[in-house]
Amino acid sequence: MLARAIASSAHWVRPLSTAAVSSCFRNAGALPEPMRPIRIRGRSGIPMSEEKTFPEYMSCATPGAPLVLSPVAEGHEDMDLDDWAKAVKAELDHNLAKYGAIYFTSVPELHTPQDLAMLMRSLKSMTSTKLSDVVRTASDEPPEYAIEPHSEYHTAGLPHKIALFAHGQVPDYGGEWMVVDTRRVMEELDKAVVRKFDELGACYKVFY
């Protein structure tokens, strides 16, 4: 399954001890490899993808990133969605800055877009058809168009956290979302180019 949630509850939450929160999820190891290679060279919607030097296939997850977490059901049978939201928020606060992305294999009691809306509302983060005040579709483009890796720095109110939620039956192929560690991308950029951006800054123009 795709990542199921990123959240915490803004309204009243039954207090959980620090020990209880920290034991709600376990490290599930590395992400499984795709069932078949995901071709990106020549894929519509990705700039420069027609170039011969463009990677032919999407690479597998980098070792150690993202952090993959699975819920621990034993001992937490009486927890409701509010409780799990608090546990998820604790993982985000502790690990998100280090790993850049967290993949929750599932979150108990999270099943519908309405559940996700409650969770995202509690984080006060932006997540394009508006489904609720905090949930939007990832894209309304035709499925053959790809969403290239990007940051949200074009807006002054950039989201600090983004959640991806797969609703319904998840296909074996198609609909992949590329998650990129832009910190590593920056490390590989020409240092002279980075210095020029530091000196001159950047100006974004957004067209809707």
TrEMBL record:
Protein keywords: Oxidoreductase
Source species of the chain: Perkinsus olseni
Pfam families per record: TauD
Protein name stated in the entry: TauD/TfdA-like domain-containing protein
Gene3D superfamilies: Clavaminate synthase-like (3.60.130.10)
The keyword Oxidoreductase appears for this protein: yes
SUPFAM superfamilies the UniProt entry points to: Clavaminate synthase-like
Span of domain TauD/TfdA-like: 75-203
